[in-house]
Specification:
InterPro entries: DUF3042. Residues 36-59 are annotated as: Disordered. Residues 38-47 have a biased composition (Basic and acidic residues). This is DUF3042 domain-containing protein. By secondary structure, the protein is mainly α. Helix content is 93%, strand content 0%. The protein contains one helix and no strands.
C-alpha cells in the first residue's frame, strides 16, 4: 500500500513540475518574446532615424 502511495506521489509531482514548466515556456513564447522583438524593432528604427537626421544636416 505504501509503495503505491509513493509511486503515485512521485508521478503526481513530476506531472505538476512538467505542467508548470510548460506554462512558463508558453508564457515566455506568447508574452515576453514578442515584447522583446517589438523593443528591438523600436530601437532599430530609432538608430535609423538618428542616422538619417545626422546625414541630412551634413550638407
Amino acid at each position: 500500500m505504501a509503495n503505491k502511495f509513493v509511486s503515485g506521489f512521485v508521478v503526481g509531482a513530476l506531472a505538476t513540475v512538467g505542467a508548470l514548466g510548460g506554462a512558463v515556456l508558453a508564457f515566455k513564447k506568447t508574452v515576453i518574446e514578442p515584447e522583446e522583438d517589438f523593443n528591438n524593432k523600436v530601437e532599430e528604427n530609432r538608430r535609423k532615424a538618428n542616422r538619417k537626421q545626422h546625414a541630412a544636416h551634413q550638407a
